Every structure is written in C-alpha cells, then in structure tokens.
Amino acid sequence: MENSQKIQLKKCIPEKLQTTLLREALLGDRASVQDPHHEKIITVTTNGSIHSPKFPHTYPRNTVLVWRLVALDENVWIQLTFDERFGLEDPEDDICKYDFVEVEEPSDGTVLGRWCGSSTVPSRQISKGNQIRIRFVSDEYFPSEPGFCIHYTLLMPHHTEAPSPSLLPPSALPLDVLNNAVAGFSTVEDLIRYLEPERWQLDLEDLYRPTWQLLGKAYIHGRKSRVVDLNLLKEEARLYSCTPRNFSVLLREELKRTDTIFWPLCLLVKRCGGNCACCQQSCNECQCVPTKVTKKYHEVLQLKPRIGVRGLHKSLTDVPLEHHEECDCVCKRNTEG
C-alpha cells in the first residue's frame, strides 16, 4: 500500500518539478560538505593552480571536491584569479543551485562568492588570512564545459594597503598610466572587457547602438579624399623626393588633448617628407612643405574621466586630422647683405 501511494504521489507531481525536487535534495547533501576526508589541503609556497576534473573539457557528474589552500607564512594572503575559460551549468532564476564553484573564508565561514554559468568570469578573490577554501559541486544532470581553473598567488598585505596601479580598477588609474595600459589592446572588445569586466557587454552594445547620425564623417569624407599612389612613382622618387608619406601621430599630442585617452593611441596620416634638391646659390635652406592639405575624419574610441563621478565616459567620436596630399620643395632665400 505504501509503494502504491508513492506511485500515485509521483504521478501527481509534474515531471519537471520532480527533477527539481530531486536535484535540490541532492544539492542539500552536498552544499554543506565540511567533513575532513572531503577536503584536500594544499600547502602554498609558490604560484599554482587548481581546476575541475578534465578541464578544459566536460567535468564529471555527481562530484564534490574541496580544496583548502594554506600558506606556510602566516603573514601573507592568497589571491585567486579565475581563468578566462569558465563554464558551469547555468543558474536557475539567477541562483547557482546545481553545479557551482564556491570560495569561502575558513576563519569565519564567510562565503566570498558562488559562481556558475558561462556569461561572466568570476572576479579576483583575496583571502583575509593565510588560508582560503574552494568547493566544487556538480549534480547528476547536465555537466558543462570547460569547467574552471583557478590560479593562486601569494600576496603581501602591505602591497594591498597601498594599492599599486596594477591592482587599482582601470578607471581609478592616472590618465598617463591608463594610456600606457590601453596601448596594449588590439580590439575594442578586449579594451572594453578590461575597463568594465562586470558589464563590458552592455558597454559594447551602448557604444555601437545606432544614433541619428547613421554614417559618421569618417565614412563620408574618407571617400572624397585622393591619396597619392606612391607605387606609381619611380623608385628613386619614392625613396628620396619630397612626397606625401605615411607618418604615425599620437592623437593626444596631435589634438592637444591631455585630458582624454584615445584608442587607438596613434594613427597613420599622410605628411610631407623626403629630400629636396632645390638649393642654389641664392637658397639658404630648402624645406619639403605641403601645397595641398585636406582634413580627414577618423573614428576612434574616446575615454574621458567623469566629472564628480567614478568611472570613464566612453564614446565613439570622429577626430579631424590633417593629411598632406601634395608637397613641394620651398627654398628659404638668403636675405643677408
């Protein structure tokens, strides 16, 4: 009779709800795992890493792993940095219920964070003392890939009391320091991800959201200019004569905007350069100068500090740069005597 009642009860519960209840029951058994035999103690003397089984491939189901990192020196902290390759089973209602990785402060049992899914890489974590605990749980359903990998390093406390520029958020860095950091990125996406790791996708969408100006000046004016084709010139002329050539200019210096950071930091422009052979007896100095100058617009990413507000204002803007289309040698006459 008892078994038949269970069968009738099971029929009354929707299949999806049955699965949820079963998984939560399993989770309840695993989330509170504190038994010493579940915990692997790792003595930290240098940099290292831990990862989910089979990383970067699909991790196994029905797994509970606990690591406790312990530094021999009691006067150091442990810093955890998650690998960019991160992916666990997605959350339900924005809650990591099933598969997750969790970081805990052993001294007081404080959970520093629990993460799952694959949309965001967890942020860097720092222990309060010389120990930190990491727990990984997977249930019997839907394992994902690649799992996770956590790199750990030792950190001296006095290094974080007075944060160095590398530990400050990008928006808090001095503009000159941030300008040097920005120079190392090759795409706008990588740059925005560095500036706003928590909301970079939203910022990227805002940046490219269409406005009333469907075609920027860089698109329109860029097709009206005529550029000298140096390949049509003789080799001697290309190497030695006064002609428009590619020059790399730093935008902050060119535009005299030291209050702003531009990406890319520099752009190629056509500027007059080369040798002149016009010096004669009455010529004191000969210079290669532009005889035809045009203004072209270049679309760049502009970063400016917000007045009175923390963070950076980001926008795509067109900056005007002078291009020399025609050049000539001009002699400065000797007027002495």
Automatic annotation (TrEMBL):
GO biological process: platelet-derived growth factor receptor signaling pathway; positive regulation of cell division; positive regulation of cell migration; positive regulation of cell population proliferation; positive regulation of ERK1 and ERK2 cascade; positive regulation of phosphatidylinositol 3-kinase/protein kinase B signal transduction
Origin species: Geospiza fortis (Medium ground-finch)
Record-level Gene Ontology MF annotations: growth factor activity; platelet-derived growth factor receptor binding
A Pfam family: CUB
Residue ranges annotated for the Platelet-derived growth factor (PDGF) family profile domain, each copy included: 250-334
CDD domains: CUB, PDGF
UniProt-annotated location(s): Secreted
Coiled-coil spans in chain: none
Lineage of the species this protein comes from: Eukaryota, Metazoa, Chordata, Craniata, Vertebrata
Protein name: Platelet-derived growth factor C
Main location per the UniProt record: secreted
Alphabetized UniProt keyword annotations: Cleavage on pair of basic residues, Developmental protein, Disulfide bond, Glycoprotein, Growth factor, Mitogen, Secreted, Signal
A single cellular component GO annotation: extracellular space
Family, as annotated: Belongs to the PDGF/VEGF growth factor family.
Domain CUB: 38-155
